[in-house]
Amino acid sequence: MGSRLLLLFFLLLFVHASSAQPGFLSLDCGGAVNFTDDLGLSWTSDFNFSYGAVASISVANETRKQYTTVRHFPADSRKYCYRLDVTSRTRYLIRATFLYGNFDSNNVYPKFDISVGPTHWSTIVISDANTIESTELIFLASSSSISVCLSNATTGQPFISTLELRQFNGSVYYTEFENQFYLSLSARINFGADNEASIRYPDDPYDRIWESDSVKKANYLVDVAAGTKKVSTDMPIDVNIDERPPERVMQTAVVGTNGSLTYRLNLDGFPGFGWAVTYFAEIEDLDPEESRKFRLVLPGYPDMSKAVVNIEENAQGKYRLYEPGYTNLSLPFVLSFRFGKTSDSSRGPLVNAMEIHKYLEKNDGTLDGYVISRVILSHSTEDWAQEGGDPCLPVPWSWVQCNSEARPRIVKLSLSSKNLSGNVPSGLTMLTGLVELWLDGNSLTGPIPDFTGCTDLEIIHLENNQLTGELPSSLLNLPNLRELYVQNNLLSGTIPSGLSRKVALNYSGNINLHEGARRGRHIDIIIGSSVGAAVLLITTIVSCLFMHKGKKRHPDQEQLRDSLPVQRLVSSLRNAPGEAAHCFTTFEIEGATKKFEKKIGSGGFGVVYYGKMKDGREIAVKVLTSNSYQGKREFSNEVTLLSRIHHRNLVQFLGFCQEVGKSMLVYEFMHNGTLKEHLYGPLKRGKSINWIKRLEIAEDAAKGIEYLHTGCVPAIIHRDLKSSNILVDKNMRAKVADFGLSKLAVDGASHVSSIVRGTVGYLDPEYYISQQLTDKSDVYSFGVILLELMSGQEAISNESFGVNCRNIVQWAKLHIESGNIQGIIDPSLCGEYDIQSMWKIAEKALTCVQPHGHMRPSISEVLKEIQDAILIEREVTAVREDISDEMSRNSVHSSLNLGSLDLGGAENYLALDESLAQPTAR
Ligand SMILES: *[C@@H]1O[C@H](CO)[C@@H](O)[C@H](O)[C@H]1NC(C)=O
Ligand SMILES: *[C@@H]1O[C@H](CO)[C@@H](O)[C@H](O)[C@H]1NC(C)=O
Ligand SMILES: *[C@@H]1O[C@H](CO)[C@@H](O)[C@H](O)[C@H]1NC(C)=O
Ligand SMILES: *[C@@H]1O[C@H](CO)[C@@H](O)[C@H](O)[C@H]1NC(C)=O
Ligand SMILES: *[C@@H]1O[C@H](CO)[C@@H](O)[C@H](O)[C@H]1NC(C)=O
Ligand SMILES: *[C@@H]1O[C@H](CO)[C@@H](O)[C@H](O)[C@H]1NC(C)=O
Ligand SMILES: *[C@@H]1O[C@H](CO)[C@@H](O)[C@H](O)[C@H]1NC(C)=O
């Protein structure tokens, strides 16, 4: 068949359900035309699918048109994906079938993998050219499309014959695990069938395939007990709702006339946890004095044999369905079971049908999925943007490399010479695991964005584009950068000082880009005087940077990183003035702040003033109240340490200024004030920040804290986290302020380091009692901030929390533990949030404020939870936007609320004595 034709249309096939059967999609892979089969199913050709080739096959006795063609794919390292449209929060059955038919005339039986999104679904092993292999899943759609991908050809070429999608109504196949697990079909048996034909559409309105128990297969329904007899009826069967087994399936059964029904069968996919249901209906005529009572006997499961089935009684009548089952049970690969009659029963057991599914755990996919999907959105017609599925799993896109973590990060992007135009996609700066970026040989314009967040970046190739603007000094913030190629662009200005010493830099062919002059002299002097201190600090600082990187290190990158020698870092500390604490003169500060004219805040450590430097840079100057920094040297050592702590979620420390009796710290100015002001301060009046924004702020803050806790040795404990210490910048991204100061203040002020510091309402009760400070004290405070984000309430209030309750922790615990989360949600969110993401945060916040530190999670665990909540919220927001035309917001919400009100383990939380939470520490 003319396979090359296909390459004419480089358009991904977005397949919609056909209208003939609502909620059905039947894709005839490799077929050329649409048609309706004998069953009345409408088949759609995948003619417009952009990858692979088609082939015709001919198999004896297989006349169904959909099995006369296949689509096959190269046996390479890529994946090939179909993307199917679905309705979010709806259950579906998806079935893929494969009839090899020697399509490649090679007689090599193919073996390859099929995946749903990032989840490995099944390994397809062909063992006979004329036998149809089939695999089936039931899933709850969590977004508006699903990708089915073929990959990893071990032998032969991957191929596919059909792909069928069937939408369920109502709640059948609901399981409490459906958000984390798919149901993968192992057996769906119609007992007592009169022939080998299976029963499906139109008898089954959902087109499930009920296999006849007369079909002979190896190790499938063998060891049948003697005396097993088929029975059937023409009477209608009451199956209640039409989602249950079709009547035709229930009208036949097997009976163990000699007292037992026994079967043995291999269960594909098992051992594992599964879902199993048996369908019974009494279809024989029993005399009034007769009875049919029996038990299930499963070797190794004595408990199951306790229940006695009496179909007629259980179903409350004859010809009515009774369907006992187990929603989570551990099953072996080889299952033997027996139904045995009880001693007082006159008739043997009877069974009509049975279904067994295995729980298949969903893979959450790469953490960069959302970001990268935004990046490719603007290039959706390009071939490289259409590979489909997860960017990293089960195998990465051809232009992407990922690390091997459970939730991988993208580490390399290779988009050289892909005809990209426009700006460098800003989303790329959010790929925080990126090590190599190749964008050379495109037509990119505009400035080089700020890659500060991609702290692992080592190699950047931007050459041969039309980029303009300066080389950003933020490139100096990339500790691992060693190769920067920007030649043949239109860049201008001066090269940030120190950059060419630090990295291999090629900037030729940028006519207006020059090497800059050295910096001012006074900085060198400061460095000179604190060189001793700096050398002492080097060990600490070096381990700070390397510890942090080491955590994310991927084996493949080991070698690359080792080429950044410690030696170079040390020498750059000595030589590069830009990296030491900058000393501002009093004159500069007075000029910038117009003699401390504008006060913008005050906190435990001093008053903060607004300033603007001569070069236009806006600053915040904190005048410390503590006068006790005796030695100038001591102070400058401490601030030198401060100036080493760089993270994009920590407010940037720019330098210090010290004169007799007055110490000042200079920070970047944050335009949008504190989180506190946004939640219940003056800034709230305009427009309250929405839930997703709040989650993003929480994520930012958690990242900053995570860096303090895990990125530095020794770890830095903030000690005074609160919503007024979380600042918001121009772009509404958050940064943590006042880190490292507690240490500074306490150690500098006296040698009594056991003074409890912190703010009422945020203070870890355990720390208050034991005076033992750990990182878990910060986690406690962060938990309080999460509660503030949810509720828009202050941590301590005399009015808001009702009688006898002054603090948010007690109040929120009471509500959350009783399942009444709505009772604490900030009304100004106007219901615009997904209840699942809210629950995630509520539960995590409660664990953060556990009375004992060892019961609290680490900040990294909290961060992960916030990120999960963000993913949920983004997905739901996207869906909400998609369907908001058709439905009102309220109805969307109520449908999303289904089944998510599960507060796992909340009853374990210990009560917190209120008196503990109210110390007046300062
Ligand atoms: C086949 O059906 C699909 C979906 O119903 C439609 O988009 C496509 O144009 C049809 N193709 C032909 C050749 O009729
Ligand atoms: C394939 O797409 C083209 C236009 O993109 C359309 O004209 C044609 O009908 C499609 N063919 C099938 C079989 O869907
Ligand atoms: C095909 O069908 C014919 C007649 O129905 C039968 O004799 C033959 O054995 C079948 N062949 C296969 C391969 O099933
Ligand atoms: C590819 O298949 C082989 C054999 O089935 C398996 O061992 C390997 O893990 C698979 N690779 C991936 C990336 O799934
Ligand atoms: C599912 O529900 C929809 C709408 O209520 C209805 O149109 C459709 O026929 C139902 N499908 C089945 C198979 O019951
Ligand atoms: C029925 O069971 C009895 C005892 O369990 C056995 O002796 C007899 O052979 C069985 N009958 C048949 C037909 O298998
Ligand atoms: C089923 O039960 C087991 C053990 O009781 C549990 O570990 C598992 O999470 C449950 N659910 C699934 C889907 O396996």
Automatic annotation (TrEMBL):
<protein>
    <recommendedName>
        <fullName>non-specific serine/threonine protein kinase</fullName>
        <ecNumber>2.7.11.1</ecNumber>
    </recommendedName>
</protein>
<keyword id="KW-0067">ATP-binding</keyword>
<dbReference type="InterPro" id="IPR011009">
    <property type="entry name" value="Kinase-like_dom_sf"/>
</dbReference>
<feature type="transmembrane region" description="Helical">
    <location>
        <begin position="525"/>
        <end position="547"/>
    </location>
</feature>
<dbReference type="InterPro" id="IPR000719">
    <property type="entry name" value="Prot_kinase_dom"/>
</dbReference>
<dbReference type="GO" id="GO:0016020">
    <property type="term" value="C:membrane"/>
</dbReference>
<dbReference type="Pfam" id="PF00560">
    <property type="entry name" value="LRR_1"/>
</dbReference>
<keyword id="KW-0732">Signal</keyword>
<dbReference type="InterPro" id="IPR017441">
    <property type="entry name" value="Protein_kinase_ATP_BS"/>
</dbReference>
<keyword id="KW-1133">Transmembrane helix</keyword>
<dbReference type="Pfam" id="PF07714">
    <property type="entry name" value="PK_Tyr_Ser-Thr"/>
</dbReference>
<feature type="binding site">
    <location>
        <position position="622"/>
    </location>
    <ligand>
        <name>ATP</name>
    </ligand>
</feature>
<keyword id="KW-0597">Phosphoprotein</keyword>
<dbReference type="InterPro" id="IPR032675">
    <property type="entry name" value="LRR_dom_sf"/>
</dbReference>
<keyword id="KW-0472">Membrane</keyword>
<dbReference type="GO" id="GO:0005524">
    <property type="term" value="F:ATP binding"/>
</dbReference>
<keyword id="KW-0808">Transferase</keyword>
<keyword id="KW-0433">Leucine-rich repeat</keyword>
<dbReference type="InterPro" id="IPR024788">
    <property type="entry name" value="Malectin-like_Carb-bd_dom"/>
</dbReference>
<dbReference type="Pfam" id="PF12819">
    <property type="entry name" value="Malectin_like"/>
</dbReference>
<dbReference type="InterPro" id="IPR001611">
    <property type="entry name" value="Leu-rich_rpt"/>
</dbReference>
<keyword id="KW-0418">Kinase</keyword>
<keyword id="KW-0675">Receptor</keyword>
<dbReference type="InterPro" id="IPR001245">
    <property type="entry name" value="Ser-Thr/Tyr_kinase_cat_dom"/>
</dbReference>
<dbReference type="InterPro" id="IPR008271">
    <property type="entry name" value="Ser/Thr_kinase_AS"/>
</dbReference>
<feature type="domain" description="Protein kinase">
    <location>
        <begin position="594"/>
        <end position="871"/>
    </location>
</feature>
<keyword id="KW-0812">Transmembrane</keyword>
<keyword id="KW-0547">Nucleotide-binding</keyword>
<keyword id="KW-0677">Repeat</keyword>
<feature type="signal peptide">
    <location>
        <begin position="1"/>
        <end position="20"/>
    </location>
</feature>
<dbReference type="GO" id="GO:0004674">
    <property type="term" value="F:protein serine/threonine kinase activity"/>
</dbReference>
<keyword id="KW-0723">Serine/threonine-protein kinase</keyword>
